[in-house]
Every structure is written in C-alpha cells, then in structure tokens.
Amino acid sequence: RPALRVGMVGHAFMGAMHSHAWRTAPHFFELPLVPELAAIAGRNRAGAEMAAQRMGWASVETDWQALIDRDDIDLIDICTPGNTHAEIAIAALRAGKHVLCEKPLANSVAEAEQMTAVAEEAAAHGVFAMCGYSYRRTPALALMKRMVADGRLGTVRQVRAQYLQDWLSDANAPLTWRLDRAKSGSGALGDIGAHSIDAAQFVTGLNITGVSALLETFTKERPMGGEFVGLGGHGDVTADTPRGPVTVDDAALFTARFDGGAIGVFEATRTALGRKNAMRLEVNGSLGSVAFDFEDMNFLQFYDGTDAEDARGFHRILVTEPVHPYAGHWWPTGHGLGYEHGFTHQVADLLTALGNKTAPTPSFRDALGVQRVLAAVEDSAANNSQWTTIEESKP
Amino acid sequence: RPALRVGMVGHAFMGAMHSHAWRTAPHFFELPLVPELAAIAGRNRAGAEMAAQRMGWASVETDWQALIDRDDIDLIDICTPGNTHAEIAIAALRAGKHVLCEKPLANSVAEAEQMTAVAEEAAAHGVFAMCGYSYRRTPALALMKRMVADGRLGTVRQVRAQYLQDWLSDANAPLTWRLDRAKSGSGALGDIGAHSIDAAQFVTGLNITGVSALLETFTKERPMGGEFVGLGGHGDVTADTPRGPVTVDDAALFTARFDGGAIGVFEATRTALGRKNAMRLEVNGSLGSVAFDFEDMNFLQFYDGTDAEDARGFHRILVTEPVHPYAGHWWPTGHGLGYEHGFTHQVADLLTALGNKTAPTPSFRDALGVQRVLAAVEDSAANNSQWTTIEESKP
Amino acid sequence: RPALRVGMVGHAFMGAMHSHAWRTAPHFFELPLVPELAAIAGRNRAGAEMAAQRMGWASVETDWQALIDRDDIDLIDICTPGNTHAEIAIAALRAGKHVLCEKPLANSVAEAEQMTAVAEEAAAHGVFAMCGYSYRRTPALALMKRMVADGRLGTVRQVRAQYLQDWLSDANAPLTWRLDRAKSGSGALGDIGAHSIDAAQFVTGLNITGVSALLETFTKERPMGGEFVGLGGHGDVTADTPRGPVTVDDAALFTARFDGGAIGVFEATRTALGRKNAMRLEVNGSLGSVAFDFEDMNFLQFYDGTDAEDARGFHRILVTEPVHPYAGHWWPTGHGLGYEHGFTHQVADLLTALGNKTAPTPSFRDALGVQRVLAAVEDSAANNSQWTTIEESKP
Amino acid sequence: RPALRVGMVGHAFMGAMHSHAWRTAPHFFELPLVPELAAIAGRNRAGAEMAAQRMGWASVETDWQALIDRDDIDLIDICTPGNTHAEIAIAALRAGKHVLCEKPLANSVAEAEQMTAVAEEAAAHGVFAMCGYSYRRTPALALMKRMVADGRLGTVRQVRAQYLQDWLSDANAPLTWRLDRAKSGSGALGDIGAHSIDAAQFVTGLNITGVSALLETFTKERPMGGEFVGLGGHGDVTADTPRGPVTVDDAALFTARFDGGAIGVFEATRTALGRKNAMRLEVNGSLGSVAFDFEDMNFLQFYDGTDAEDARGFHRILVTEPVHPYAGHWWPTGHGLGYEHGFTHQVADLLTALGNKTAPTPSFRDALGVQRVLAAVEDSAANNSQWTTIEESKP
C-alpha cells in the first residue's frame, strides 16, 4: 500500500493527539494509504525535536514553510492556534499538499471564505482539505446522525446544545493564548461552541439560519505566567503577579433557528463549575429524541416514540456493538472508547477518502458554515442580542 | 387550635392537588391553624358536587362570588385558568379573605400590578395573599436556595433552566384551554417557564434584569374535542375532526441577565419528546454548583469546589434527611416524596404564616416580578429577539 | 357506599403511614367500601390519644383485645413489632375481623403456619387476611411483574436483589426494638431482606427452593437510650452510656435457586454507608431484563432484547403514564409519586377485594412462603452456609 | 534508553490489546526502557504474519519455544488460553526472560503454585514475572485503592462485586474455547470473576478467607462453528448445526469473608441480558464508601461520611484530573479514557519496574491468591455450597 507522508505544524495538546491518531489508525482500520509521520514544524528546534521523539516523528523543521516546501510531504496537518490557519492552509493547498486543519477553521469569516475558495480550487486538481471537527467521529454522535438521517426521529423540532467546562472558574487561572483574541479568535464560543454548532448541523443535517446571542466575560484580567496544566492551569499567583486583559468570552449563549423550522438553544462556557467536558447535544423530533453527553461518551440516549406505550423511555445505548459506527474496529462489546478515538477515526476516514481520491468531510465549506454562525453570534451579542441571519454557505 | 375555613374555586387537576394538600398538611405539620375544607365553587352544580365529595369538601357554590360572600370562609384558594385570577383575587381580598392564587399570577402585567396593589393594601389590614409557585417547597429546591444563601456557591455566575415536557409532541393532542391564549395567557412560557423563572430568582436571590427571546408554535391547529387525559390527552381524531387555532407558544427560549452580573439561559417546551416533567435548574457559582431535575425530585446534585482535590464531583444528595428542608416531617431517610408534597408544604407554610399573622411567600409582588419577565420575553420575541429590560418590581 | 371500619394496633412509623393511606385512598380511587378511621390501640392512653388526633382516628383503646371486642370495627390493621403479630391476627380473625398485618408476617415459621391456617379457615367464612408487603404496589414494581407475566422477558434466569441502608453504620446508633431479636425476629434479614424475597417471588412468579447464606453483625453492642430519629437515631452517647447486646444481623447475604431453574443473589444490609433505601431488584430473562431501585422509585429500567440491534439499551421508563399500574389515579405524566403511595395502593386494593368479597393478596400463605425463606437463610448461616432447601408453601 | 525486546505468544483479542499497549506507552510515559515489538509466535505462519503486520511486530515464529530460544528477546508476553500459561511461563522464566502472563494465571492451583515457585526463584536472579490483572490500572479503580489505603473509608465492612456480561444470553452463541473447560479452566468464574476477586483484594488490601458458592450453566450445548465476533459471536445456526457440550459455568455466585472481618458478595455472569461489561465494585467502610462500574469507567462514586450533614451523597468523580492516578499522562480534564488504557498503564508500570530492577505487581503470588479463591468457589459449589476456606497464599 502506498504511503501518505504527513507533516504536522504545532506540537502541543492537539499535536500530541493527532500524532497518536496517525500512529494508531493503521493498526485498527484497513486503509488504502499507510500514514508516515514524516516531520513536524515548531519554532523552537530543541522543543520540536523533543516533541518529535516523544510523539514518533521522523524529522523536524523550524518553519512551517520549510515543511510545505519539502517534496517528501503529502499532507499538512495544522495544529496551531486559529490565527495561523489561513496562511498555512492556503500555502499548503497551493503547493499541492492535502490539508487537515484543526477547528475552528479560521479567526474570521473572510479568512474562512478565502480558505474555502482555495480548497475548492485545489480539489479540482485532486488536492483535498478537511477541517478537524473530530466529535463527528465519536461513535455515539455518528450513530445519532445516522438515526436522524434514517428518519427514526421524524421531523426535527428542537436542538439543545451545551458545552460546559470549568477551567476558568478559578479567577487565578493563567492568561494563555486561548484567552487572547488575536490568537484564538474568540473564547468559549470558538473553542467549544464551534464543536456544538458543527455537531448540531452535522447530526440534524440542517443549517442554522439565524441567532440571537449574549456573550460574557466574568474575569476580565488574569495572571500572566503560572504553570500550565491541561487546557487551563493553576496560576502560581501572588498579589504582585502582573495581570493582563482577557479579550475573549468566558461564556456564550444563543438561541437559533434552523432551516426547515427547527429551533435550538446553545450554551458554551468555561465557568460551569463541576462540568469538565460536558459536550451535550439533544435533538427532539416528532417521532423520537436522542441525547448525548461527552462525559458519558460511550452512551447514546434514544427515545423511541414508537415503542410499546408502557415501555417508552430513553434507551441507554452502550455504543460499542459491531453494528454501531466505528465500534467494530475496536474491542468487544461493552469495552468503551476514549476521547482520542474520535481523532483516530478522523484520520482513518481521511486516509480512506484520499486513497479513494474523494473529498473528505467536513470540508472547508462545512467549516465556513460554522464560522458564519460564530460571526453572527458575535454580531448579535454586540448589537443588543438582535436577531442576526446567517448568510448561505452553500456554493 | 382555631380553624382556617377554605373556599376553593376550580376543581380540575390543580383543585384535586390543593384539596389533597389541605387534607394532608395538618397530619404531618404542627400548625397554628387547622384547615377546614369548607366549600368549592364550580359553574356546573352536579360536577362541583361530585368533585366536592371526591375531594372532601363540605359544601358547594356555583358562583365564586357566592363563595366570597360567605361569612364562614377565611381564605379563597384560586385554581382556575389565569384569565380569571385577577377578578377573583381582588374581590376576595377586598372582602377580607386571604388568598392563595395559582400561578402564573395573571395573564398580563397590568392585572398583576393591580392584584399586587390590592394585596399590599389588604396586608396592611392583616389579610394576606400568596401565589402558588409550589416548586419552591420541593425539599431539593429549598435546599438549593439555602446553599446559595449560605454562601456555599460563592458568587453566582450562571443559571441554566429547562422545563421540558412532551405532551404536545403529538400533533393530534386536543385543543384544550391551555392552548387558548385568552384563557391561559401564554403557552409553555407561562405554564411551565413561569416556574423556571420563579425558581431561578428564588434560588439565586437575584432578579432577572433583561432577556432576549424566541417563541415557536410547531403545530398551529389542533383537533377540538377528544379525550382529555392528564395535561394533554389523546385526540380521538379523524380526518373530519374540526381543528381550531393554537394561539400560544409550544416552546419558549430565552437568554437572561440577573442583577449582580449573572447570566442565564432558559427553555420551556411541551414538545421535547421523551421528557415528561424535566424541570431542571442548575446554578454555577465561583465556589460550587447545584443542579436539580424534577424527574429525580428527591435528589440534589451539589458540586463543592472546596472538596479534596481528588474527590471533587457532584454529590448526589438524597434529600430525605431530618437536616433537609421539610423532609423531617415525613418518612425515614431514603423514603422519597412525590409531586404533591410541594403543595402540602405550601399550605403548611401558608397556615403557619397566617397563624403568626405574617405575610406568606411568594407574595403577589414576587409573582408580579415573574409576570414582568414573561411579558419581556413576549416583547423580545415579537421584536426580533432584541434585548428587553425588566422594569423594577420592588416596591 | 358501605363503610369499612378500621381499628389499628400500633401508631409509630408504620401507623402514621397506614393512617395516611386509609385517609387518602378514597379520594383517588373508586372504592366499593369507604374506610373509616374508627379507633387505634396503644398501651399508653395519652400517647395513643395524641397519635389519634394527629393521624385522624376517631377513638382510642389501650388494649388491642378491646379493639377486637368492639362491634363497630370491621378490620384490624396490625402495625406492631413482629413478636405480637400472631396473637393479634389470630384473635382478630377468630373474632370475624378482616386483618391487614405488617410484614414480616411473624417471627417464626411456626407462628406463620398457625396464622395461615387460621386465615384460611376464616376465608371460608368471608373473613380475609392480607400481609403488608407494600412494595408490590409501587407502580414500577407492579409494571415489572406485568412485564414478566406477559412474557416480555422470556424465561427468567437470574435475579439480583439488594436492599441497602446505612443507619447502622454509626456504631453509636441506639439499640432500638429493631435490634432486639425477641421483638423483631431478625435484623436486616427480616426487616428489609423480607421485602426483597417477597418482591423477587412476586415479580418472577417463581418460588425460592433453596438458599446458602451468611449473616454478620458488625457492631455487637449499642448504647441504650439516645434520641430516636427515623429508623435509627443519633445516640446521645458518652463513655458512660450503658450498652446492650445487638441480637440480630446487620447484614444478610445469600444465594438462591428458584423453581424453574433460575438463580439469584440477595443482600440485605443496614451498614452500606451512603445507601439510604436502595431496594434494588434486577431480573434477567432470555429476551429481556428489568431493573429497579427504590431510591429512583418512579423509574423502571427495561432492556428489550427485541429492539432494533443498534438501539438496544435499558429504557428508563418514567412510570407515571395512564397505561402504567396505579399511575393514572394520580397526577399528570412525569409528576412522580413517593414512598407512601405504595401503602395507599395497598389499602385501595384491599378495599376493592373486600368489597368484592374476594381474597386480597399477598395472602398469609404468600407471606408464609417468605417466612420459610427467612428461616432457611438463618439455618444455612448457622450451618456453615450449607445449601438449605425450602419446604413447599403451597396448600 | 535501553530497549526491552518483547516476544508475544498469541495474537487474538488480547494480543491486539497488548500490542497497542506496547506501541503506545512510550509516547505518553517517561520510561527507563523502550519496548521493541520484536516477534510474535502463532501456530499458523500465514495468520501470524498477517497479525504481525497489522499489530506492528518485526518478526514471526510458529512455535513459542522458538521465541524463548531467541537471544534477542527480553520478555515473553503470554496472551494464550489458560491451559498453556504454566508451560510457557515456566520455560520463559527458566530461560531468563521476564514474563507478562494474561489472567487467570493458570487453570489450576497446582499449576499456579509451580509458576509462583519458579517466578520467585527467577526473581532472585533479577528475572521478573507479572500477571495481567489490568483493571487495577483503570484510573478510577486505582483511585479507589488509594482512598481505602489512605483511610478515607475507615474500616472496610462490605464488598459487593458484580461482573455482568450478556454474550451467552443467546442460546445460539457458538461454542468457543472460552466454553471449553480444558482450555479455559472455568467459565464466567475464571474469565471475569477472577477480575472481581483480584480487584476486591487489591482495592481493600484484604484477602478472602472463605467462600460459599453456586455455579450454573443455563445452556448446556451450543453450536460448533459459526461466525465469531467479539467475545462471543453470532452462530450461523440451523437445525442441523452440530452442537457440543458447554463444560464451564455461565454464572458464578458466591459470598465471602475477608481477613479483618469484612464480608462480600460476588456475582460473575455472561447471561445478564443488557449488561455488556458491567464490572462493578462497591466497598462500604465505617467512614465512607466507593463504587465503580466499568461501563462508566471514567467515574468513581465516593461517599464521604465526613461531608457536611446536608451535603452527603455519592460524589461522581470524573477521574481525569492531574491529581488522579495515570490521568495526568493523557488529555485535559474531562476528556475520558477507554478500555485499552488499563493495558497501556500496565506495560508502563511494568517497564518502569523492570528498568528499576524491582518486582512488578500483581506478582504470580498475588495471582495465585486469586487462583485459590477460584478453586474454593468450585469446591464449595460442588459440595452443597458448604463454607470453604482459602489456604494462605502468603510466602
């Protein structure tokens, strides 16, 4: 089988995750292409070399452009903050490299539109781009989508999406790049709300057509420095620790309408104390409902309105059966998967698509659709929560 | 102990519930006044007499005015649709009768303001009025409020309130008075959203200062007639069954701000298939969080941010200990209560307040505060979800 | 409708509960007989009078024999410790009074056999006896039985029953009558294990044919006196507080075989710290499974092996629909019931049976069957856990 | 860093799992030795070669003895059925190879004793052996043990362990090696009950001293052949399909005593329809309780009897914090792990121990202790459930 030689830009949390996925996918999936962990790029050579060794990459560059320039790289995997996505992705696609770009696609609609245009041009030449909304590949969410698509919910009426974390509840959590609008684009909205938006549109097959929103930042200044752990960190903070301004939202709330008449309510927050990674999605239809919570990621709740009348109740489906999406590639029934499997499924599907010379999903255009919702949310919030419609994202 | 002679107007679902509460409270609470189920009023004498017998009332009137005119009645208990609340309550208070009025207080802010003015005048003469937001007396919700008041959550930041039912998911559910705006005032918003608003303000001790809202009615016409069961009913519907217009919302979504800086998101719906009476309230503070779901009404979830670092997680508190609100009056630890106990606690607290010649809560002014939020939600929804501030309800 | 005049012996926890049931049943059920709370018997007149007033009884006797001697009593309701059941029940039945006797039926098989013989003789003359295994009337357990009886589980293979409480975890909980073998017969075994045995036999329709058991008492001596609260109490204990011997088990564990080939495992304990009233029962069949936990008493978990392959999972049924046992007599869908409703259903079914001149269930013979299992458990535990068969209880 | 060259015997389900662990551990843990996937042995060369390629092994042998004979192998990883463990492990240890042996250690106490003797002799020469009770390395179970060891539960009183699966509920599931006593030693008892026994002893730090047991096989004959999927498979069965005898238990139930006075109840079954991999363990102490269910493997339930009286309830701890065992090596807070992580932790701990020239745990002696309980369970079941004591396993 031919190889797909991967060059990855960035090697922090997401880089470690993608590396695991590239290493692991070929051992569990029959793939037309065999991934090679060819090179990573990181500005600091020593740091990049240490990362390459730990994560299993063969070589190192200190400049993403150098990575793109190499002839022995087929795909650029972008794991850097959002402000760099457009430049890297566009250069890579124009150089004929496939691209896997972390979400959110960009920090503005303008960038995302340009990326989409370049991606669609490249696709005409067999060079493909994909955006990393990995939650789509969680078996339970993929099953949820299949159930909706199969008509088992009837007409979709309501969506409720929450993405609740708490690592900013502590007012002394340090000021990382995720709290700097110049790098991250937005706060909870773009970081985790983007997942909810993509998942809601993916699962229902419906686009959001308008929103009304409210954004809030509870802690306006945070200590610079401190020990970084996980997403947040524990500030090693004294009264003297200098503080800098938080320029993004802690929490984003919005109501939404979908084409076809469904309505939804969304909440993304990093200050819901006690909720660690509660990415929840519920869809109510005329015949059935489905509900998911990432903290219980191996389960899907399904209410079947056609069950015997005395036996109706949410089915707590342990999504680990051979008949469930992805699950048959792993362990026996009941032996659950973890967070990283969504990423492994993502590269497995990507490799399959590329091997078949077909476009992987979600496309940049799909991700542009999410970007437009993010922008509309910010516009509405800045404008007295006024209803704000979403421009059509279809080509 | 002296008696409190009760006259009740209306004898449907809520009338049955209140009757149970009046009958039961004195057997479990030490009360300064002993309630007497003196009389009920219902337009149809035969129906009222049957109800009186089934529910344990001593006599019957066919006109609520006649009930108010009787000298042997001390309190009027109003269990009729919202369009009649103002007239009955005002007449009763002016006649020197205490009033317990079902929620929502009225069908408009204007009515609620007038009722509040009359109630406050009556209170000056020792005649008291209370609005029946009974969920406040669910032990878990009362514990939730106590925890917030005791500072165990720190500063309140976020509220998420859902009240999810599904009895209108069926497009053939019949057109009852609850779907007729002239009688009910509004749909899910006033019927169940009002509970969420009251509970959120009660538990946090904070007032909602503004909202942005969206209302939706999925099924615009419903069959007239059919068999009524519970809140909804199964329409015995054919193609010929005449249909009438639904004039209220099926679902109401809104975001909110509270005084003091907290934000919230609310959803009230009767079309969330599979959710039967999921009145949920979660409050996140800087030190802790609490979460409640009426479908598990005997439990309170409490996240204590001061627990040992490796032991943090929501405590699933079974709220049946002597140390918990109301619980010590009932069964041993672990032997849970049901829906009706909130109503029994309500009349127990009311009888205690009246016996002590003090004002019971929630007052009509508290209920007027809820009414103002309901009105702001409707205004915002009618006005492109634009941010709508709530007029101060404090005297 | 004719009256059924009730005389109740004992007025502690169970007396308060039965009183509530007698008062409440006629308001929610159409009954052929109207219960009258005629009299209670209690040794201390002052205490009995206070109880009568609080619980709603018309008169008082200080001797249970006096109660039986009265012509104006139709039914004797026995709410005293187990050591008194046989004498009172036999006297009452011989005097032509119907009997409702709290569980366990007696403190020995010999007593239970005698009671059963007398009850069956009385039944021939239209005088009926019932034992108060009230959990049978919890809607979810009644639904569970119906599902098994309807064949929806296929062949029953496995039963797992736990009844977990924790009020004896505290080594200073006081020495009450429930810890005195002379009065209570046994400890966790007879008090709560008896419920599990009855429920398992009731739900499956199968009899236990043999057991192997282990009993344990962790705290051998407890303070005499102290404040009694709920089932246990908080001992107001110092080093000087005299202690007395605990003569019953804290925990009872046993395995079992049922006729027809099913097997089961049972645990009853009052020292499972954190479990308040976790009366759990799970039944696995060849086609489906059901599971119940009294701490979530309004829910039944049902696994339907015939569901679509990708949708299998335990249905979390909120047992509050009109189609569910008992539920239609109460509140709308989703508005849950509490512990006391099982008792209200018990007297409703009893009054219906008596009105129809038919035998209520569970009969004394059913309760004798439980008694035989309790005895076999004690025998096995005393005999190196050796397998101990249960003598046939069928007439 | 020096390499540890691994040779693995067997390449089915467990082989795939161990391969993943060997490949993955060095990317997430700082290890003193770097594992090399040197060779696997499988009787069929073509099958072994395919497996080697899929699982990432460098070479293949068709005979386990050949693997042991190779100089370039440091450790033998035994992933074959239990009847082969003793022979392979003893040969490997005598050849100076470290051994990782899947559980249960052997098919008889005699074999396990011999293996332990050989292992202890080898250890004196720096050659170490470990048994693969991987559940010990699930973060929540490891936290459970730490909490008990730290005294946070006080004195351990009760253990309840269930391991519930359902892949033998279908009477047409095929007759695999797991149902053949000659290969597997026993059924649910040794396959999954062994995990419960090891986990109970590991978590509590107490040894089981005696048991009383019952074993049952519901389906005595099963089709030979059929498609194997996961642990069980779907038999492609007709009336003509020949059936063979099932020679092991479907379900094993037993009560137990631990040294120090605690008692326990155990159930292992493969016919609990609807339960997929419910490996549950609850421990009740005098001060606290902990409960675990592998179907929710990222959570630990902890009841802290020293919490504020009104806040007591099981803490639902999401065991993904840096302060929790193993969790800090993976993803941010709230991003859960899966089944395979226990195996990755197992080899990480093993490599660390070997690098430090210390003995890894669980040792063969620990596993011999489990074996003795398994044997006692079978003895008791064969002997009328009579109490059967466990011979001391300590050296």
In short:
Chain A is of the alpha/beta class. Helices cover 31% and strands 24% of the residues of chain A.
Structural overview:
The structure is a homotetramer of 395-residue chains. Chain A has helices at residues 13-28, 45-55, 64-69, 85-94, 109-123, 139-149, 181-184, 188-204, 341-355, 364-382; strands spanning 3-9, 34-41, 59-61, 75-78, 98-101, 129-131, 156-164, 208-216, 221-223, 243-245, 251-258, 263-269, 278-285, 288-293, 299-304, 314-318, 388-389. With 395 residues, chain A is of the alpha/beta class. Chain A has two domains: 3-134, Rossmann fold (3-Layer(aba) Sandwich); 138-360 and 371-382, Dihydrodipicolinate Reductase, domain 2, CATH 3.30.360.10. Chain A has a nine-stranded mixed β-sheet with strand order 16-15-14-13-7-12-11-8-17. Chain A has a six-stranded parallel β-sheet with strand order 3-2-1-4-5-6, sandwiched between helices. Chain A has a two-stranded antiparallel ribbon with strand order 9-10. The radius of gyration of chain A is 21 Å and the shape is globular. In chain A, 66% of the residues are buried. The mean pLDDT of chain A is 95. Chains in contact: A-B, A-C, A-D, B-C, B-D, C-D. Chain A binds chain B through residues 157-158, 160, 162, 166, 169, 171, 212-214, 216, 218, 251, 253-255, 257, 261, 263, 265, 267, 269, 271-275, 282, 284-289, 303, 305, 312-314, 380, 384-387, and chain B through 157-158, 160, 162, 166, 169, 171, 212-214, 216, 218, 251, 253-255, 257, 261, 263, 265, 267, 269, 271-275, 282, 284-289, 303, 305, 312-314, 380, 384-387. Strand 16 of chain B pairs antiparallel with strand 16 of chain D.
